[in-house]
């Protein structure tokens, strides 16, 4: 597992390291959606700022978006903050946003944890 999870009440910060794969993002999502506090969750922060690489393709990002979109039926007001300055992750986050477009979840990209948390709270 190349990520750490920090719970802040019902909210979560997931900090990735090393080479990030679809399986690891999917595993992090499983932790989120399997948690009893998901219904009260207001934000999720995915921190990719210290990674060595991002091994996720467009189809896999669409699959992540599809899972999140289905989960939005149980909690329709979640902010998703992505921390990165990697152009590939920015591009794939835009793909994710396209899948989530007709849900009430908001997604925004940040370069720092401080800015991400300011937006989330």
Describe this protein's structure:
There is one protein chain. By secondary structure, this protein is an alpha/beta fold. It has a single domain, classed as Transcription Regulator spoIIAA. 40% of the residues lie in helices and 30% in strands. The chain has helices at residues 22-33, 58-71, 87-100, 113-120; strands spanning 3-8, 11-16, 18-21, 43-47, 51-55, 79-83, 106-110. α2 (58-71) packs across α3 (87-100). The termini are far apart.
- CATH-level-2 architecture: 2-Layer Sandwich
- Structural domains: how many: 1
Broad CATH class: Alpha Beta
Q: Fraction of residues in helices?
A: 25-40%
Average pLDDT, rounded to a whole number, is 95
What is the CATH fold-level name? Transcription Regulator spoIIAA
Structural class: alpha/beta
Largest sheet: 5 strands, mixed
- What is the CATH superfamily classification? STAS domain
- The outline comes out as globular
Strand order within the widest beta sheet: 1-2-4-6-7
Low-confidence segments? none
**What is the H/E order?**
EEEHEEHEHEH
Supply the number of helical segments: 4
User: Nearest-angstrom radius of gyration?
Assistant: 13 Å
Write a brief caption for the model.
With 121 residues, the protein is an alpha/beta fold. Helix content is 40%, strand content 30%. The protein has a single domain (3-120), classed as STAS domain (Transcription Regulator spoIIAA).
């Amino acid at each position: 597992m190349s990520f750490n999870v920090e719970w802040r009440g019902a909210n979560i910060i997931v900090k990735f390291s090393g080479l990030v794969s679809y399986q690891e993002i999917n595993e992090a999502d499983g932790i989120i959606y399997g948690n009893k506090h998901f219904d009260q969750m207001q934000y999720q922060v995915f921190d990719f700022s210290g990674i060595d690489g991002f091994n996720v393709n467009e189809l896999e990002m669409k699959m992540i978006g599809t899972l999140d979109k289905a989960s939005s039926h149980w909690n329709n007001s979640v902010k998703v903050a992505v921390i990165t300055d990697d152009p590939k992750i920015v591009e794939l986050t835009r793909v994710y946003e396209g899948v989530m477009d007709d849900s009430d979840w908001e997604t925004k990209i940040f370069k720092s944890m401080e800015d991400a948390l300011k937006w989330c709270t």
